[in-house]
Amino acid sequence: MTSQINVSNIDGAFPVAGQDNNSQGFRENFTNIRTALTVAKDEISDLQSDTAKLNEANNFNGLLLENAEVNKFYGSVRNNGTTTGATDVNLDNGPLQVFTLGGDHSLTFRNWADSDLYHIVKVHIINQSASPRTVTFGTEAGGIFKQVTGEFTGGASPQLSVAGNSEVVIEAWSVNQGLSVYLKKIGVFQ
Hints:
single chain, 190 residues, mainly beta, eight-stranded mixed sheet, 8 strands
């Protein structure tokens, strides 16, 4: 975008030294300067509200960030603490979410990205009990799960047994707002 500030109509040679200068020339210059400053103010205000900042969080409102090299690009971690019963995995809370099990549990994935966008989340499940815990997965809007063969039980409502005193990390992703959710166990950690 090119600036709309017009400086060509400001007479930099006015007033002329050593001669009687018409006050109309002063008025025209001041009017043109004021007009240019008003345009500059508007453009600066737009830049302050509509550009990425280095000193505050940026929300690109779903706009595409394309053809960029990234370095030191980190993901957020959401520690949900000890949870029991039914809990949401709200995808708005970031790409890695940690749940410490207080018993058998169900986790429901919510707030998938718009259709045709790839959305992925890793879920880190911690079982600090000596007893195994069962986690049942669900997704909003009645979506279906597609699973890596042999990693989950339960069919349409996948279940995962988490051994006592262990941690499991799973990955879930969708490209159609959670109508089809792909589920994969990354690993068991002790």
